[in-house]
Automatic annotation (TrEMBL), chain A:
<feature type="transmembrane region" description="Helical">
    <location>
        <begin position="119"/>
        <end position="144"/>
    </location>
</feature>
<feature type="transmembrane region" description="Helical">
    <location>
        <begin position="199"/>
        <end position="222"/>
    </location>
</feature>
<dbReference type="InterPro" id="IPR035906">
    <property type="entry name" value="MetI-like_sf"/>
</dbReference>
<feature type="transmembrane region" description="Helical">
    <location>
        <begin position="156"/>
        <end position="179"/>
    </location>
</feature>
<feature type="transmembrane region" description="Helical">
    <location>
        <begin position="305"/>
        <end position="330"/>
    </location>
</feature>
<keyword id="KW-0813">Transport</keyword>
<dbReference type="GO" id="GO:0005886">
    <property type="term" value="C:plasma membrane"/>
</dbReference>
From TrEMBL, chain B:
<dbReference type="GO" id="GO:0016887">
    <property type="term" value="F:ATP hydrolysis activity"/>
</dbReference>
<keyword id="KW-0067">ATP-binding</keyword>
<dbReference type="InterPro" id="IPR003439">
    <property type="entry name" value="ABC_transporter-like_ATP-bd"/>
</dbReference>
<feature type="domain" description="ABC transporter">
    <location>
        <begin position="29"/>
        <end position="268"/>
    </location>
</feature>
<protein>
    <submittedName>
        <fullName>Peptide/nickel transport system ATP-binding protein/oligopeptide transport system ATP-binding protein</fullName>
    </submittedName>
</protein>
<dbReference type="Pfam" id="PF00005">
    <property type="entry name" value="ABC_tran"/>
</dbReference>
<dbReference type="Pfam" id="PF08352">
    <property type="entry name" value="oligo_HPY"/>
</dbReference>
From TrEMBL, chain C:
<dbReference type="GO" id="GO:0005886">
    <property type="term" value="C:plasma membrane"/>
</dbReference>
<dbReference type="InterPro" id="IPR013563">
    <property type="entry name" value="Oligopep_ABC_C"/>
</dbReference>
<keyword id="KW-0813">Transport</keyword>
<dbReference type="GO" id="GO:0005524">
    <property type="term" value="F:ATP binding"/>
</dbReference>
<dbReference type="GO" id="GO:0015833">
    <property type="term" value="P:peptide transport"/>
</dbReference>
<dbReference type="InterPro" id="IPR017871">
    <property type="entry name" value="ABC_transporter-like_CS"/>
</dbReference>
<dbReference type="InterPro" id="IPR003439">
    <property type="entry name" value="ABC_transporter-like_ATP-bd"/>
</dbReference>
Amino acid sequence: MLAYLVRRVIGAVILLFIVTAVTFSIFFLVPKLGGATADDLASRYVGKSVGKEQIHQTAERLGFTDPLYVQYGRFVKGLVVGSDYNYGPTTEHCPAPCFGYSFLTQTPVWPDLVARIPVTASLAGGAAFIWLITGVGTGIVSALKRGSVLDRSLMSVALAGVSLPIFFTGLLSLSIFSYGLGWTQQGGTNPLDETNPIWWAYDLILPWVTLAFLYAAAYARLTRAGMLETMNEDFVRTARAKGLTERDVVLRHGLRAALTPILTIFGLDLGLLLGGAILTETTFSLPGLGQYAVIALQANDLPKVLGVTLIAAFFIVVANLVVDLLYAVVDPRVRIS
Amino acid sequence: MTTTEPTPAVQKSSEVLLSVDGLVKHFPIRKGVLQRQVGAVQAVDGLTFDVTQGETLSLVGESGCGKTTTGRLLTRLLEPTAGTIVFEGRDISHLREGQMRPLRRDVQMIFQDPYGSLNPRHTVGKIVGAPFRLQNVKTEHGVKRAVQELLELVGLSPEHYNRYPHEFSGGQRQRIGIARTLALRPKLIVADEPVSALDVSIQAQVVNLLEDLQEEFDLTYVMIAHDLSVVRHVSDRVAVMYLGKIVELADRVDLYENPMHPYTTALLSAVPVPDTKRKGKQERIRLQGDVPSPINPPPACRFHTRCWKAQDICKTVEPPLIQLAPGHQTACHFPENATPEQEATATAAAKA
Amino acid sequence: MTEETQDSVPEPQRIERGEAFLDVRDLKVAFPTDDGVVKSVDGISFQLERGKTLGIVGESGSGKSVTSLSIMGLHPPGVAQISGQIFLDGQDLVASTREEVRLLRGKRMAMIFQDPLSAMHPYYTVGAQIIEAYRVHNQVSKQVARKHAIEMLDRVGIPQPDRRVDAYPHQFSGGMRQRAMIAMALSCDPDLLIADEPTTALDVTVQAQILDLIRDLQREFNSAVIIITHDLGVVAELADDIQVMYAGRAVEYSTAEDIFDRPQHPYTWGLLGSMPRIDRERTERLIPIKGTPPSLINVPKGCAFNPRCNYAHLNGGASETDRPELLDTGNGHMVACHLSPQNRRQAWENDIKPKL
């Protein structure tokens, strides 16, 4: 088991390394392939008013003329020990972990990310809680009442939930509950601290429910399919043959086995969302990582885009790792072999 | 026990079709951070036997004895770890996929599960005709005609050509599988539990069909089975396997009437018999426990942990598979039903 | 329908025998499907006393497993249409509520299944599953239940039961798993044990051990046992009485000795002729039953076996039109067949017996 753990962690680290390399290459090769020279890149940081000579010097100082692998090495070094950006007028220090330095806003990327992670985490965590409860619950009920009117109506709602995009359901709910009824504010959020957990939750209810609706629908369908399968397993028949109550048969025996694949997908979904729920955050004007990515993309601010991509990749890889380890906890067959 | 039945004429033609020598297949087990090999499942561990043209040789044994792995080695679905397989004088042990291709016409396999081995999306015509297409065989009157002839041969109707596997019962599906196997007129058929998934009444139909086909096309069968009653019915010779090794190999009559290895004796006496007079009698040999794991098989004689005759030598010296009677090989230090000379031979062989 | 009226007349000798511990009367189980109604069990009756073993023999689709699941009340509600009566110690299970039957399951009647690997929950230890079975029907602490579980494992011959109790099913061998299943089934000391193909998934030497175990435990617990199997050898080992089923009906019912030594139904003959026998001289050829088992949606008219029967032509067309009832031919040997006693004796003496 320990060997398995060590192997998985090493694998995750290697994977993250590869992800940074690939992402970095893409972000710095793409402009180049588009015909932009190192000077063009540098000019974006110092402005076009300065002379060509000065731009070229800036490009050299920032290392844009170096081969890609040197630039990548510098980036990784920055991640580990921090780095200095000397772009002419001043030298900017970017402490570790340095995810890059935005010359457009003249700020290092990392503090921005740190400020936005709690917002995204609040959104993702709350929504996950809601969709897990409602989605799995709906799926169980649907499976047990297979073919009934209830099953069919629940599954129709679930189909709608899977098909309708966030910007539709989000804007619809905003227009009804915020603009129409005035129950919630029209966007933004309070940070979570001891004084205002209620306000924190209250402001997030609408985005939570909107986001959870999408996922709950998918989870309901998944749970239903899983339950239909496990309820036909021999061990469920054995549980009934023992004389267990139907409740115990369904929850302790049927659901227990059906939950494993759901757990896997849940981990990955949560990991993905922690990297930024772009549509939800944009729709509800939440200052999270997703919104940050959108702003950075629109401004063509490559260091920020790179930073947010890496942090998203990090969450996904970690979620993947956690899921695999949890699998071993849940399924004794994985644990022992 | 007197032999009332004449010894079957194994030596119809003593031409050896398939010859196996020292066949070994180990599946590595990897563990730890570096995935080092820490052991191996010793599925097949040193088999030596010949199969002569036109005979039926059965491999019997309990789960984990390696009979299925052996079947897959013989058809080269697996590559042996060591040892040689010689088919018609040609060493096929390590042939590559491309080199095996012409050989696949001559060596065919029938599988246990008539449900799993047929593609549910293909019609019977397509399934049975596939070997012709794969091997680019020209048929005299076209593939369809050839397939319909095959279907008739195995007792199906030619009209079944355009139907799908799910429309058939288990026995009919096994017939489809047999028709496909026969398409290219193979010389050797390895049949892995061909009737064990079928109902009793259907089992008999398929057994009879296999026997008829053998007669008609001079087929050679290697039959892999666990049902000793069926094995006795179909086989000319029987090899009893235990944990990757052959413990006894003999003519059918010899083996069933005069078993020499204690494991064979135990196996035979464990078969439930549809005869109430034997009910509850304690004359039977009851082996204790289960078959040990092939990952860590017991040393020397692998059967010693369950054998009631085991002595110290069984735990230290592996008994060689030697001929104790004509055509009757046994690997045991203390053979059952043996004459004093045979016992002496066994002892001498162990010392050698 | 004439068949209906025939069925509703209870067989007279059944009532005279009085109410047995398990008394199944005219049980019918049907499953409506899109293709039609599948009549899995179409009117069977039998009795079983404590300490006795009934073997139910038949091929796939004969209704033998459906019968056992009906007794246990394990068919999902709304899926199966069940009629008739199943008296367990005088209580009619068909007329009881689901909750009443649930309280009997595991406590008074228990079941073991064919494949012990899939029949045990892979995520719970063997001990936890036995403890659960015990605690449903007994108000005891977990410690007491655990002690009981260890005792049960020891009783069914699992070595080091105090350690194995915490192992998971996949860590057991096939034989050990089936022993653990038996321990679980017997944990509440049931009066009726149903074993559905208990040894089909096991190796032959392990099968022999399990059959011995079932026989020993039955003696010890004095329970009634129903053993369901396709293997005539297995019933010969265990059963006192045997019911041979074909297409949802009983075609022959008698003592094990009668069934094996003096079988009367052509289907039973067919089964015996189909199987190669290790205890007899080897025959050159097996005698299969021609054709295939019928679809339970379109059961052949008259005797369901008539399209596969070699003697149907001797009955002057009755085989194709009238369904034969299960009738006593003497000494409680019951057969559902139109053959006249002379024809039957002749066929058995001349055609069948010499070839077995």
